[in-house]
Write a structure and sequence with these properties.
Blueprint (H helix, E strand, L loop, with lengths): L22 E5 L5 E8 L7 H16 L4 E6 L7 H10 L4 E5 H7 L15 H21 L2 E16 L13 E5 L5 H8 L2 E5 L4 H6 L5 E4 L1 H6 L8 E3 L4 E10 H6 L2 H35 L3 E3 L3 H22 L2 H11 L2
Parallel strand pairs: 2-3, 2-4, 6-7, 9-11
Antiparallel strand pairs: 1-2, 4-10, 5-8, 5-9, 5-10
Helix pairs in contact: 1-9, 2-3, 4-11, 5-10
């Protein structure tokens, strides 16, 4: 039975065409060239993300009279986010769906939408994104990429093989830390956990061998990647809202016809809006599914919640200067205080 989640990127079947050329021109029967864009995603085939991308692809072909389409490389066969970004830069891929790790490799200020202890509700994130997105999108274009749409991966929660109610309970835990993560190292250093740096496709094996016993992930991602089957507890407090989105190379975008650019941009906005609505609905469904599978939710006292918030603010203060200018960080944080 296919497992589903609502974004990510967040993924592991091998495709025989994984290393095939990605920017190809294929002649139609009528003699009109078809532009095929190679797009990578960590999402597995059969997931909500890939299903959505396939629907988007059908709409894109319809809007362009069959002259523009995607070739989707699912399941992480093109690598984790940093590798996908490198392949886009080198021309080996045209684009990809990325989580915050990949977006930060393109343009670090994109992480203002994922500052810890900042956005406790999606409405706050929506307001911040509506106000700041044009500025961030311009920075991404300047870095050589084009943002086709922003996605919500979900609210990251702490999963573990032991009960973790307060930050000090993480002392000695073997906590997964993603390669090239900007924010999590500051968190790990403050709670005394032992970081285990791995790319996303490596996490399941590490959980199976107990090399990793604790991880942060949105519930839908934990289910889709089978990580939740190696956890016993989940903390009730969301640590942050994990963001993502789909990018293509700016040079590839500029090589399209004006009609193709318009169709790609407009359908991108349309399908990402739909995706955000679906991901939020699926997040609630995923929490119910985890409970049915026996995952125990760790409830916290007011004092324990205050400890988590204090740690989150410390981490935010520690990493803010690495993410964006003080002015941009301040403007982003202000939306979390509304």
């Amino acid at each position: 039975m296919p497992r589903r989640f609502a974004l990510v990127p967040f993924f592991v079947a091998l495709l025989a065409i994984a290393m095939a050329p990605t920017d190809s021109l294929v002649a139609q029967d009528a003699g009109v060239a078809v532009r095929t864009l190679g797009i990578a995603t960590l999402a597995p085939s059969g997931s909500a993300i890939v299903d959505g991308m396939q629907a988007w692809n059908r709409e894109l072909r319809t809007r362009t009279g069959g002259t523009l389409q995607f070739r989707i490389y699912a399941g992480g066969v093109q690598g984790d986010d940093p590798e996908v970004v490198r392949k886009i830069r080198s021309g080996r891929l045209d684009g990809g769906t990325l989580t915050s790790t990949g977006l930060s490799a393109i343009y670090r200020p994109a992480l203002v939408f994922q500052l810890p202890a900042t956005y406790l509700h999606y409405a706050q994130l929506d307001a911040a994104r509506a106000a700041l997105q044009p500025e961030i999108d311009a920075g991404i274009i300047a870095a050589g990429f084009r943002m086709l749409g922003w996605a919500d991966v979900g609210q990251a929660r702490l999963f573990s093989q032991r009960r973790i109610a307060r930050p000090s309970d993480l002392s000695g835990a073997h906590l997964w830390q993603r390669d090239d993560d900007v924010i999590l190292p500051a968190f790990v250093s403050r709670v005394g956990a032992s970081p285990v740096e791995l790319a996303v496709p490596e996490v399941l094996g590490a959980l199976q061998t107990s090399r990793v016993d604790t991880f942060l992930a949105p519930p839908a991602v934990a289910i889709a990647l089978q990580w939740s089957s190696h956890a016993t507890y989940m903390n009730e407090i969301p640590m942050s809202i994990v963001i993502g989105g789909m990018v293509v190379s700016e040079s590839v975008f500029q090589s399209l016809t004006p009609e193709q650019q318009t169709a790609l941009s407009e359908t991108g906005v349309q399908f990402h809006q739909l995706g955000r609505r679906n991901s939020r609905r699926m997040e609630t469904q995923s929490l119910h599914a985890l409970a049915e599978r026996g995952i125990q939710t760790t409830t916290t006292t007011d004092a324990e919640r205050d400890e988590w918030r204090a740690i989150g603010r410390q981490v935010r203060d520690a990493v803010a200067s690495q993410i964006a200018s003080p002015d941009l960080v301040a403007r982003a944080v202000a939306f979390g205080e509304q």
